[in-house]
C-alpha cells in the first residue's frame, strides 16, 4: 500500500498552494488601486491572466487526482475525521474550480473583458451585462472567502495531525518524502 502522494500530485499541490496564496494577496491589493486609472487595468488583467493559468493548473490537478487514487488515511483515523477530510477536500476542489471560472465569466460580461497578460485580448462570450457581471463577480468574491476559510481549516487539520496526533500525515505530501 502506497502511503505517499505521487511526485506530480505533490508538485501540483504546492505550486497551486503558492499561486493561490499569491493570487489572494494580489486580489486584496487590487482594492488599493483607484478605479479608472491605467495602472488598475494593467494589474486587473494580470490578476485575470494568472487566475486563468491557475484555473488550468487546478483542472490538471483534479484530472491527476481522478486518475491516481490518493493514499488512504491511517486506519487509526476516526471515521468522522475521514468523512470530514473527504467533505473538506470536495469543498476545496469545488471552490478552486468555481473561483477562477466565475471570475472569468464575470470578465466576459464586462466592457473590459480579458487581455491575457496585457498582450492578447480574448474575445468575450457575451455583451456588457451589469446583472450577469454582478452575479459572477459576487460568486467570485464569495467563493474566494469560502476557499480561504477552507484553506485555513486544511492548515489547522494538518497542524493537529502533526503536533497533536503526531501521525506524520504531513510527510505524505512533503516534496522530499520518499515513496
From TrEMBL:
Cofactor(s) demanded: heme b
UniProt entry tagged with the keyword Heme: yes
Membrane-crossing segments per the record: 12-30, 42-64, 85-106, 141-159
Keyword DNA damage assigned: no
InterPro entries: Cyt_b561_bac/Ni-Hgenase (IPR011577), Cytochrome_b561_oxidase (IPR052168), Di-haem_cyt_TM (IPR016174)
Keyword vocabulary terms for this entry: Cell membrane, Electron transport, Heme, Iron, Membrane, Metal-binding, Transmembrane, Transmembrane helix, Transport
Subcellular localization(s) per the UniProt record: Cell membrane
Residue ranges constituting the Cytochrome b561 bacterial/Ni-hydrogenase domain according to the UniProt record: 4-175
Protein family membership: Belongs to the cytochrome b561 family.
Entry protein name: Cytochrome b
